[in-house]
Amino acid sequence: MSEQNIFLLDGEEIAFAPGQTIMQAAQSAHKYIPHLCWHPEFKPHGSCKLCTVKINGRFGSSCTVEAAAGQNVENRTAELDDKRRTLLQLLFVEGNHFCPSCEKSGDCLLQATAYEMGMMTPHFDHFYPDRPVDASHPDVMLDFNRCILCSLCVQASELADKKNVFVMGGRGMRGRKIILNSESGKLGDTDFSVDDRAASICPVGVILKKRVGFVVPYGERTYDKAPVSAVEAAK
Amino acid sequence: MKTAPSPALNDPGIVPAILARHGHDATRLMQILRETQESLGWLAPETLTAIASGVGWPRAKVEGTAAFYSFFHLRPRGKYCVLWSDNITDRMLGNRELMQALCEKLWLEPGRLSEDGLVSVNTTSCTGMCDQGPAVLVNYRAVTRMDMARVEQMAELIRNQVPLDEWPAEWFQVTDNIRRKDALLDHGLVPGEALAAAMALGPQGLIDEVKAAGLRGRGGAGFSTGMKWALCRDAAGEAHYVVCNADEGEPGTFKDRVLLTSYADLVFEGMTLAGYAIGAKRGLMYLRGEYRYMLDALESVLARRRAERLLGARILDKDFDFDIEIHFGAGAYVCGEESALIESLEGKPGRPRIRPPFPVTHGYLDQPTAVNNVETLAAACLVARHGGTWYAGLGTGKSAGTKLLSVSGDVERPGIYEYPFGVTVAQVLQDAGVTNCIQAVQISGPSGVCIGQDELERRIAFEDLPTAGAFMVFDCTRDMFEVARNFAHFFAHESCGFCTPCRVGTQIVAQLMDKLETNHGSPYDIDEMFKMHRLMQGASHCGLGNSACNPLFDTLNKFRPAYERRLKSLDYEPAFDLDAALSQARQMTGRDDAGAHLDNME
What we know:
The complex is a heterodimer of chains A (235) and B (602). Chain A has two domains: 6-76, Ubiquitin-like (UB roll), CATH 3.10.20.740; 85-232, Alpha-Beta Plaits (2-Layer Sandwich). Chain A is of the alpha+beta class. Chain A has helices at residues 22-28, 78-94, 109-116, 152-160, 172-175, 222-225, 228-233, and strands at residues 6-9, 12-15, 52-55, 58-61, 72-74, 133-134, 140-143, 166-169, 177-180, 207-209. A five-stranded mixed beta sheet of chain A has the order 2-1-5-3-4, with no helix packed on it. In chain A, strands 6-7-10 form a three-stranded antiparallel beta sheet, with no helix packed on it. Chain B is α/β, with parallel strands linked by helices. Chain B has a six-stranded mixed beta sheet. In chain B, helix 11 packs across helix 12. The two termini of chain B are 43 Å apart. Classes of the chains: A alpha+beta (235), B alpha/beta (602). At the A-B interface, helix 2, strand 8 and helix 5 of A face helix 4, helix 5, helix 18, helix 19 and helix 20 of B.
């Protein structure tokens, strides 16, 4: 690694390979930048905005901005974590999230990130959208109440599974949603399989495998044992 | 509720014919969907399946595109679909009352299809008729100057199921309302004149002249046109493209409507110049769906230009081939953003791309693409004909040339005014005629700036007030809070939904404005709006989210009393109204006595 391929992340020197984004470089260096829609296996999507950092004083998405020598990147500052907390609150009131009864509680990236950011309340009025549950598939059910529109299932199905079972469509908060690749709009009428990469990519509790719920009890799950910052930094 | 008959099965030949006409090309999906809907009325599930298999896309992708655009209907929409333009200028002309009256005459609620499936009435974002509102779209055909007499007659026509072609022709008349002409509108060029001059210069010579002219993009951002063309020309690619951004969706703007109605030759010639400069063979005009009524006239101009050897192969007998096709949008403001526009041209939802890379290197079909505003392209003809030095002499130091302003609102003569850059707001107001005292002028639409009466000496120029052209005037009787609330709902409706801050933030802001409107607000809510402004300005994916709170920010700073007189108290007030929540129970029990009300209001 040449001397100049270094930037500062919260004052710490981070080495990067040319072409890496700030997020990728941070991940390689075991540094945690909060994120929801970013996943190392896929192209950056840049939609959740949780990974917003300040690069030389200007806001930018660390998952899409390439690392450059000499950048001064602010990450876990009070200002940025405050914005992240607000973004999380927006996501919580946009959908219907009831953590105490959710199968994903303790393994949920949204919940874990909210704990990490010290989010104590949803703050805003809930929108209580009317979102359907789809139990038509024999092995997998979909609970769109929890969808945060990260598009990871879209990418996994398109790029890893070559199927396009999930597509993001519609416009705005009231229109944007996952569209399933069948005329009925039901998962059971698509060629989706429980073995697809997309079946295990959801960071929240939308895509759930049937008959394995609560195999690991609450209290013994990923983020019950360590906060998301520690889990991510250990990767 | 009756189930509507499956339209695709009514005439199984329609969809295949449309697909064949477009070569089963998925990038033409927007046009395929529009034409299919024009034939079948709506896009039924089996219609989308047929289109998807026809273009070779996954069905969900086709539905994803169809669901993105306001003008595509995935449910039966009724034989008559009446959409009221809901810009603030339409509201000031009484569109809400007129819409209510139409709904009452037709026995329906806004947004709901009538029980017999005949008609639906709803609102839509500004349709670009602010100088002749209140305006509506009936089955996506523009009707101007609505009034109570027309509402009554329209209800009759709909009830009697009179075909649209038999409605009074004068309803569909759109007038130019050109009030002041300058260098552009008085161009005096004959078709081909600018092109011949450009070809004498050669591509590089033309770019040099455009650079010397100091021509800047008229869409508002003001990027140097010569620089854009040079970057695009130098970018490597299999093909280069010219895209004319005619998606003028900024509420209050209608200059492109006039240019395309009466100056189409100039615009197409400007596109041809751009194609010549950057080395493109194809030009695409992306026209907003609201201007669908222009299609036949524009196509005939294109046909004439082809016959005159100004388009097609070997233009003016030189070694230059170029042609233009027209694509329509379908009701999505965000497509005015150039990378979202390109996505739409490729048949996809209009989601702004991650930038860089920029369209000049990776645009349409990932190829080098010059996206220019209608007015910029028209102005380029003047530069080609008269030279950069001449053009640079117009306007101000950093803003060469002239600017078309779309003046609407509280003026005597709304319409199009062309001035050299540097004109003061006061001068425009004087020319347009104001009788009442002026409270504010919204420059460049909701995403622009709102100036107060102490700022009327400010100038229209990139140095001071940059603008895409909207110029909405509000006199002292207007409630600036209602202006801002209208804009807040506009952004909430038009947010593409891609990024969290804009998708949810615009909704939160609209909700807070409604809370204030119903007199449940407190200073706390105003602080909340500032907080959303700060969040959205820094964290949003594109300009829509970044500027969505501008009107709130400006009006809160300059017209704070308009907000404060709505505040219920200086402490926190809940948005939830306990008494209103009981209204359903009152309706069910048929009670409305004092005992059926909760006195939580005081």
